[in-house]
Amino acid sequence: MRDMFQPAGLVAYWRPVDGVRHGLSHTEPPYPGQERETLCGTTVTIMMPTELDWLSPTCATCWDEARARRDAVEREADAQ
Ligand SMILES: [Zn+2]
Questions:
Q1: How far away, in angstroms, is 27 Cα from ligand 1 center?
Q2: What is the pTM of this model?
Q3: DSSP string covering the chain, please?
Q4: Which stretches in the chain have pLDDT values below 50?
Q5: Cα of 80 to ligand 1 centre, how many Å?
Q6: Are 49 and 22 in contact (CB under 8 A)?
Q7: What is the pLDDT of residue 74?
């Protein structure tokens, strides 16, 4: 289930924050206590997710942004 959020080229890390699963830039793995900007432009503090937290709904804005980034990566790969 979680695999669908991580296509071949990793474009985002997903972390549940306050009941919503947000996307984070793939450049650095998130760790609990860290302040990060989400793909939808919110600054959040990363928490240690529980099994229940992973069932949180995905942030639609982050999802669209992650999809756009993945498509861009794939377009780049096609062009080579
Ligand atoms: Zn978001």
A1: 17
A2: 0.81
A3: -GGGGS-SS--EEEEEETTEEEEEETTS---TT-EEEBTTS-EEE-----TTGGGSPBPHHHHHHHHHHHHHHHHHHHH-
A4: 1-2, 7
A5: 31
A6: no
A7: 87
